[in-house]
Amino acid sequence: MRFRAPKPGRTGPRGASPPEWFLYERPGKERWVPIRRRTGLDETRALSGLAGLDAVEWAGLHDAYGPATEVPTLLLAVAVGDEETRSPAWWNLWGRVLHQGSVYEATLPTIEPLVALATWGEYPDRPEALAMLCEAARSDDVRVWRYDGRGEIVHDETRQRWLRGALRAAVRDRTAELLGTWREEPDRVRRAQLWMLSSLPASVGAYRELVDSVLPAEHREAWRALLVDEDLDEDGSDRIWALEAWVNEPT
């Protein structure tokens, strides 16, 4: 697969350019990260999940920071990388396409590769991919933006409304693939599947056995609050945090 040419000033150390490197953008910790393949990687399988990225005109889509030309390199890094590659790549990817809970034009073409990662049995970060799909489906803060001629941000409200429905439908339409294997999955994946289901209330009935089998009694009140998207007081917010902490507990 092909990736974009590097932007001026964005080449890596010693002139290397993406997709061999990406810039880790965490404030105060910026550094160039080489994309190192993990041991035992089935690269054919990994790249098959990214096959559609070549058809996306990333420069014409915006993420949280501007044209989304970094996004395909980050998807490559999380798909093929070792742990030291994937961790900063996930950080960047969240920051660009799900920035503080907001979603963007560039979020939509990440859905298919995220589904491929979430359903790949040997992929080490399946819960991370499921979590990103969950938040893409859940978010109501949709931002389609550009700078106008005066350098001010303007939003396309019509496209924002369309994108909100398109994101939810893109995840909902893959529910059977994402959740249908729950009985055979390890505990950490089942908890992530349960969390993803919370973003799709209309699908809960079809997966009631997943809920009943996996969700502990002490987290059921928080689960119900997520489904109805109710306004929460401090205690309710604490219960949601406790549920999310349980979902993310290491096994």
Tags for this model:
single chain; 251 residues; mainly alpha; 2 domains; two-stranded antiparallel ribbon; two-stranded parallel sheet; 11 helices; 6 strands; globular; disordered N terminus
Characterize the structure shown:
The chain folds into two domains: 1-173, no CATH class; 185-251, no CATH class. Helix content is 45%, strand content 7%. The chain is built from eleven helices and six strands. A two-stranded antiparallel sheet has the order 1-2. A two-stranded parallel sheet has the order 3-4. A two-stranded antiparallel ribbon has the order 5-6. A hairpin with a 6-residue loop joins strand 1 and strand 2 (31-34). Helix 2 runs antiparallel to helix 3. The longest helix is centred in the middle third of the chain and has 16 residues, at 157-172.
User: What is the spatial order of strands in the main beta sheet?
Assistant: 1-2
Give the proportion of residues in helices.
40-55%
From the alpha carbons, calculate the radius of gyration and give it in angstroms.
Answer: 19 Å
Rounded average pLDDT? 91
Secondary-structure element order, as H and E? EEHHHEHHEEEHHHHHH
The tally of helices reads 11
Taken together, the total number of domains comes to 2
Low-pLDDT segments? 1-9, 11-18
Task: Write down the overall geometry.
Answer: globular
Structural class by secondary-structure content: mainly alpha
Tell me the β content.
5-15%
Q: How would you sum up the major sheet? A: 2 strands, antiparallel
Q: For the terminal residues, how far apart are their CA atoms?
A: 35 Å
Number of strands: 6
